[in-house]
């Protein structure tokens, strides 16, 4: 659903931009493509759509707020100045991180669930300056994977998932692609700085098990299919 909304928003943006330019050509209205502070849209638009697509990630939220503040320094310089914006960067970062932690604690993976999950049977994988494809067979109880300047593909469609499991991922300038069987549900949460987690798995009302995915993304991301 979020992917669809973000695609629609991108379509509306390009459509509106085209209409404005056509109107200017026919002298129907005045329109300046490069107005004062136009470059801040490079931050505002992608980060805003990223917030809709991936949720309120740390990176996208900070980028959006910073872009809006910088635009205000051009449009209303009497209210906010560039020096004020840079002084606000640190407190904004702390506020966003704090809200992210609070929301994760309230709505993320519950502590009692983590106690039930078989931590000792979880597997560990790493792709550092490399790529890997993991296709575990038989019973699977979760894993932890790190993709640092690399990519990791975890294909669980041939695995047996008989209980709730937890998959933890870390992506730093890398990416993780996770494929799950059709008989499970997926609940994902992430802390992201210029990245995100994309869950394309549709909810299965008949599923008896849930795959919980928690991820940390720095200029990277996770795609769940």
Describe this entry's structure for a reader.
This protein has 225 residues and is of the alpha/beta class. The chain has two domains: 2-107, no CATH class; 111-224, no CATH class. It is 39% helix and 29% strand. It has five helices and twelve strands. It has helices spanning 2-25, 41-54, 58-75, 82-107, 111-116; strands spanning 123-128, 131-134, 138-139, 143-148, 151-155, 159-160, 165-172, 175-179, 184-193, 196-199, 209-218, 221-224. The strands form three sheets. A five-stranded parallel sheet has the order 1-4-7-11-9. Helix 3 (58-75) packs antiparallel against helix 4 (82-107).
Q: Cα-atom Rg, whole angstroms?
A: 21 Å
Helical residue percent band: 25-40%
Main β-sheet, spatial strand arrangement: 1-4-7-11-9
Structural class: alpha/beta
Number of domains: 2
What is the overall pLDDT average? 82
Tell me what portion of residues adopts beta-strand conformation: 25-35%
What kind of sheet is the major sheet?
Answer: 5 strands, parallel
Query: What distance lies between the first and last C-alpha atoms, to the nearest angstrom?
Result: 14 Å
Task: Name the descriptors.
single chain; 225 residues; alpha/beta; 2 domains; five-stranded parallel β-sheet; 5 helices; 12 strands; elongated
Give a quick rundown of the structure.
The protein is an alpha/beta fold and 225 residues long. It has 5 helices and 12 strands.
SSE arrangement:
Elements: H1 2-25, H2 41-54, H3 58-75, H4 82-107, H5 111-116, E1 123-128, E2 131-134, E3 138-139, E4 143-148, E5 151-155, E6 159-160, E7 165-172, E8 175-179, E9 184-193, E10 196-199, E11 209-218, E12 221-224
Parallel strand pairs: 1-4, 2-5, 3-6, 4-7, 5-8, 7-11, 8-12, 9-11, 10-12
């Amino acid at each position: 659903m979020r992917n669809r909304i973000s695609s629609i928003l991108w379509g509306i943006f390009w459509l509106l931009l085209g209409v404005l330019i056509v109107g200017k050509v026919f002298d129907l209205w005045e329109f300046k493509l490069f107005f004062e502070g136009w470059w801040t849209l490079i931050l505002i638009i992608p980060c805003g759509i990223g917030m809709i697509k991936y949720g309120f990630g740390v990176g996208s939220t900070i980028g959006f707020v910073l872009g809006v503040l910088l635009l205000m320094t051009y449009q209303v310089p009497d209210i906010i100045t560039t020096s004020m914006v840079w002084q606000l960067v640190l407190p904004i970062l702390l506020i966003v991180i704090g809200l992210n932690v609070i929301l994760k604690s309230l709505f993320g993976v519950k502590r009692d669930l983590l106690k039930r999950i078989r931590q000792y049977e979880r597997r560990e994988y790493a792709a550092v300056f490399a790529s890997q494809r993991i296709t575990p067979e038989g019973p699977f109880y979760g894993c932890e994977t790190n993709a640092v300047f690399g990519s990791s593909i975890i294909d669980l469609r041939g695995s047996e998932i008989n209980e709730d499991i937890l998959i933890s991922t870390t992506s730093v300038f890398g990416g993780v692609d996770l494929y799950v069987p059709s008989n499970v549900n997926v609940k994902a949460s992430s802390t992201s700085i210029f990245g995100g987690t994309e869950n394309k798995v549709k909810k299965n009302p008949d599923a008896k098990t849930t795959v919980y995915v928690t991820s940390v993304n720095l200029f990277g991301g996770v795609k769940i299919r």
